[in-house]
Amino acid sequence: MSVLKALLLRRKFTLLTVVGALTLLTASAAIAGSGVGGVFNLGKVNTVNAITKLVGSVAGTSLLIDNNSTDPAATALNLHVEAGRPPMKVDSDTKVTNLNADKLDGVDSTDLLPSDQVRADGSASSSPIDNFTQSSFTSIISKTFDAPSDGFVMISGSIGAQEDCSLAGMGDLTYRLKVDATPVTLDVFSYELSYPTECTDEELNIGDSGAATAVVPVSEGTHTISLEAREWGAGSYIYGRSVTSVFVPNGSAGPIPTLTTTSEATTANQNRN
User: Fold this and answer.
1) Are 128 and 141 in contact (CB under 8 A)?
2) Are 232 and 174 in contact (CB under 8 A)?
3) For residue 191, which of 161, 234, 169, 149 has the smallest C-alpha distance?
4) What number is the average pLDDT over the span 249-258?
5) What is the rounded CA–CA span in Å between residue 192 and residue 190?
């Protein structure tokens, strides 16, 4: 503008001179890249307080940004908003392939549990075990599972049994859970099925049922959970049993107690009597 003003003040101008000065002013405004209708200039700050739209009909991507820099901080797009405002909006719920998000509904990705870190396993049987008279703990059902990492497993076992009327005397059945080679309970009488009366012609099929549950720490790898039973009376008729396990990577539980000597079982039996 100062160039045109100087020419006017001196009154030394030609039509060509005025046109050239106006062209220079117009180009300068375009280079500034500011204001509605201004040119978008690469490598410069472009300021405008209005929505800028890119509208077209393209069989593919409408806008492609390709950053070929190998710098660790290189990115193709950087969005900035004020605190508490969403950085972008979309009008489609279609899955975006390869979109890697750090948070989901405000939850950090480190707080999300991968699907392969939780598993449930189990086994059940209704096939009866007749004349069960084992005087030592014997596995009556088991299940093997693979822990994907160190963690905790909630195990449970259930059993149903009744007086074995083909045997003389009353039955008295105890049961327990075991992880690998270690029982999860120390007292051999922690879980017991006892039948109130002996079999008679008037009163048959006297039965009982029970369950046991525990949470124990396990290491990564293969483990086997077992439901074991032991007969202390004349015998029992076992008609149903099951074991289940649910593994999670986080939790809390004390170590599995260890039955170190047979005298502990003897002591438990004496205290019971």
Assistant:
1) no
2) yes
3) 161
4) 78
5) 7
Distance CA 17, CA 7 (A): 9
* Separation between Cα atoms, residue 88 and residue 78, nearest integer Å: 11
HSE toward the beta carbon, residue 150, CA cutoff 13 A: 2
Closest CA to 206 of 219, 196, 214: 196
pLDDT in tens, 23-33: 444 445 445 55
Distances (CA, A) of 139 to 126, 180, 226, 230: 15, 11, 6, 9
Q: Is residue 9 part of a domain?
A: yes
Q: What is the bridge-based pairing of β-strands 119-125 and 221-231?
A: unpaired
Please give the backbone phi and psi of residue 261, each rounded to the nearest 5 degrees, phi first: -135, 155
The CATH number of residue 158's host domain is: 2.60.120.1340
SS3 168: coil
- Looking at residue 271, what DSSP letter applies? H
Q: Tokens for 244?
A: 């289940």
- Reduced to 3 states (helix: H, G, I; strand: E, B; else coil), residue 194 is strand
| Tens digit of each residue's pLDDT (9 = 90 or more) over 142-196 | 999 999 999 999 999 999 998 888 888 888 999 999 999 899 887 888 899 988 7
Task: Band the pLDDT of 197: cuts 50, 70, 90.
Answer: low
Q: What pLDDT score was predicted for residue 48?
A: 87
Indicate whether 165 belongs to any domain.
yes
The tally of CA atoms less than 13 A away on the side-chain side of residue 31 is 6
Shared-domain flag, residues 268 and 155: yes
Domain assignment present for residue 226? The answer is yes
Q: Is the pLDDT of residue 251 over 60?
A: yes
Q: Count structural domains, the chain.
A: 2
Q: pTM here? A: 0.62
Where in the sequence is the domain holding 6, given as residue range(s)?
2-30
Rg (CA), the chain: 40
